[in-house]
Design goal:
six-stranded antiparallel sheet, 6 strands, 0% helix
């Protein structure tokens, strides 16, 4: 099954955050967690700044869903904070 977001929304797969540093210190989860993801699909965007495979930082309150054991998020374009290169 394929998920195609409608309107000015995108589907992203959140990237897993490192749970401990190279020196072995475990990092706490919480507000300091960096919200980074990979764009999987884009809806009907007025301006095409994003494409499949781009890495982004996001905020807001995305809709969470799970498919085939994989976690995905659908969020509005306005919640994308930055594109990572």
């Amino acid at each position: 099954m394929r998920i195609i977001p409608l309107g000015e929304r995108i589907l992203i797969r959140p990237l897993k955050r490192e749970e401990k540093t190279k020196s072995g210190i475990y990092l706490p989860k919480g507000d300091s967690e960096k919200k980074e993801g990979e764009v999987m699909e884009v809806g009907n965007l007025k301006e095409q700044h994003l494409k499949k495979g781009d890495r982004v930082l996001y905020g807001g309150y995305p809709e969470e869903l799970e498919m085939d054991g994989e976690k995905y998020l659908i969020l509005e374009l306005k919640d994308v904070l930055a594109k990572l290169e």
